[in-house]
Amino acid sequence: MKLVEVEGSHTLQNIYSSLDVHLGQSYSVLVTADQPPKDYYVVASMRFTNPVLTTTAILHYANSAGAVSGPPPGGPTIQIDWSLNQARSIRWNLTASGPRPNPQGSYHYGLINTTRTIRLANSAPIINGKQRYAVNSVSFIPADTPLKIADYFKISGVFNLGTISDNPTGGGGYLQSSVMAADFRAYVEIVFENSEDTVQSWHINGYSFFVVGLDGGQWTPASRLSYNLRDTVSRSTVQVYPKSWTAIYMALDNVGMWNIRSENWARQYLGQQFYLRVYSPVNSWRDEFPIPKNALLCGRASGRKTRPL
Fold it and tell me: Under DSSP, is residue 80 helix (H, G, I), strand (E, B) or coil?
């Protein structure tokens, strides 16, 4: 498989015999049908699970001279280092798509000074006798009014900024409609920290970001020495390996209330998510359009009127 694209990023066209695709991710590959004309297995296997589940499809040439034979190919190694090294090998093709010297753009992402570091640690606390999942000890619960609508109408009491910390607390889990404040046009470093034994997959709604570092163990400021500040890919969903960390750089160039969440639906539903409020005091249509006049309003916003477009 020749990898050519990852979530909108043109990549170096490396050849892979197997490719790890984590929850919520997408890849584009090219396969050259240059083998003798017969049937071949195409295998998809789970990774880092017990048991390992496998399913197969058949690649069939129109002039196939024979059916598949023998057992399907075995799954890839269960070692995390193998997958980690593959992830590091996926890099941007800087000769494609005409990279621009825009300081807020993709080509010089590693030359921009970050203005803030946010460390996010997932956990699986028991809260009120029930299994929940959390970020920096906060397990998200929906508010009685959609957060963006409450923010638009400035309805107090629906959510409070600062209800989730910039750093892991190390404390017990608790329930909250968690919202983190952020400034429009800031350039932030976000570190996802995973102390659990399962692979995590994180998505940031409304944004693409640069995956600058992945490694095992505990992240420290010295970990920045291993960052790829030249040709990492830009994407919107990233994996974090067990007992490991993943670091990203992201330009907050999109005003709004944006969801940061686990792509594991069970974990997401049970609280492993929160909202990032990217705010501009200018309140300009250049930065964010107002809510449409026909928007459906509910909760504490019922009966209110939107501003005309």
Answer: helix
Residue with tokens 């959390």: 134
Contacts of residue 141, defined as CB under 8 A and 6 or more positions apart, other chains included, come to 175, 176, 177, 271
Query: Quick one: which of 218, 211, 262 has its CA closest to 243?
Result: 218
Q: Contact, 306 vs 293, CB < 8 A?
A: yes
| Residues of the chain under the 70 pLDDT cut | 76-77, 97-107, 307-309
Q: Which residue, 224, 168, 208, 172, is CA-closest to 192?
A: 168
Cα 203 to Cα 1, 37, 43, 235, 258: the distances in Å are 25, 41, 26, 9, 10
Q: Are residues 28 and 5 in contact, defined by beta-carbon separation less than 8 angstroms?
A: yes
List of long-range contacts for 161-167, beta carbons under 8 Å, 24+ apart: 161/277, 163/138, 164/135, 164/136, 164/138, 164/274, 165/136, 165/137, 166/116, 166/117, 166/118, 166/119, 167/118, 167/119, 167/136
**Burial grade of 86 (CB within 10 A; 0-12, 13-18, 19 or more):** middle
Strand 116-123 with 27-30, pairing: unpaired
Q: How far is CA 51 from CA 45, 54, 79, 201, in A?
A: 11, 10, 15, 20
Compute the distance between CA of residue 145 and CA of residue 110 in angstroms, rounded to an integer.
39
Amino acid letter for position 100: R
pTM score, whole prediction: 0.93
The residue count for the chain: 309
Give the model's pLDDT for residue 105: 47
252-269 per-position pLDDT tens digit: 999 999 999 999 999 999
- The one-letter amino acid at 49: T
In sequence order, which residues have a C-beta less than 8 Å from that of residue 222 and are 6 or more positions away? none
Cα dihedral 67, 70, 76, 79, rounded to 10, equals 170
